[in-house]
Amino acid sequence: MFVKNALRAATAISLIAAGGASAETITIATVNNGDMIRMQGLTDDFTAKTGHEVEWVTLEENVLRQRVTTDITTKGGQFDIMTIGMYETPIWGANGWLVALDNLSEEYDAADILPAMAGGLSHEGTLYAAPFYGESSMIMYRTDLMEKAGLDMPKAPTWDFIREAAAAMTDRDNEINGICLRGKAGWGEGGAFITAMSNSFGARWFDMDWNAQFDSEAWANTLNFYKGMMDESGPAGYATNGFNENLSLFQQGKCGMWIDATVAASFVTNPEDSTVADQVGFALAPDTGLGKRSNWLWAWALAIPAGSQKQDAATQFIEWATSKEYIELVAAKEGWANVPPGARISLYENPNYQAVPFAQMTLDSILSADPNDSTVEESPYVGVQFAAIPEFAGIATEVSQEFSAAYAGQQTVEEALAKAQALTNDAMEAAGYR
Hints:
By secondary structure, the protein is α/β, with parallel strands linked by helices. Helix content is 43%, strand content 13%.
């Protein structure tokens, strides 16, 4: 699938060491997630091996998406590497905005990337971004609170069970919320969660003629269920909580359950950061019996914008940060539970990692998410928690703002869905889909 050049990386590094090539300073835009913060702390290893220095621009998720999108569409040239995902990569690759990663070294072993990740980060068989980590979503829950409530978490629960369990675990007097879920506006924040959840309720963004479907019973059921459950058992201000806010709440012992990115498992089970590290269990994301679970598929990946003047150094960094050797480096320094998950086949074949309590559930979740068949009724788009069309990010950001306003009680669910229906159809008509 990939063209390999066994000498490229070794030759570049040896030239630098011999003084035959000048060291560069590359600028990388990334998200303020724990794994990326850890990567920054290990960058001295890359510099020692290559001579290249790294400058980091670390941003909150919604801000990162806006900054890198603006930069690449305007050819701003601010970054040599961008942290992007499965939504942007195929679209930007098709537009010629990214450097093809078709000359990775043989030592890097691109064939070891999980097919679900390589496929989502490719266009017409060519890789345009390398996964730093891959993820789905799953349930993380307090085993002690579940036991106290007199309930047993199934491996594959329904949403009705989750709502029942959330109510049973809620203890307002002790600041324990039965469930913490994303409500924050942003297509990749609360928008991603509610879209994945809607799949399990039988909803979809568009029918086969690209007509918006927010006037459907399935979408009304999704939002009413979500809001009802969160009003009953969620934290105050849940309409503005995203990944990092809910992570903090869970680590402080203030959530009975949290349904979110599988990558969070290493953080909630780390005793240095989590007060409930030894009381966490895992289960598949819920369903409603219609044949689709509510888990997504994503990778935070590293890509090189076509306008970078330092493509060789950027490629060396990507090989370093997404390599088997980087995984070994993290494992040696911080333990196997803290390595970047979900990207490489070999990781899940490693006995050291197989012993990590959430490893198999993470893999099961990733493998159960199918971006080519994510909805109960047929849909015209690829993607689980997004529709892989250029217009989606803008539309979904607006839709998620309407949903968050409904969660906050600023409008009704019916009003939010009516606005979502109108703005989505208007945008699709303007874009020529209808």
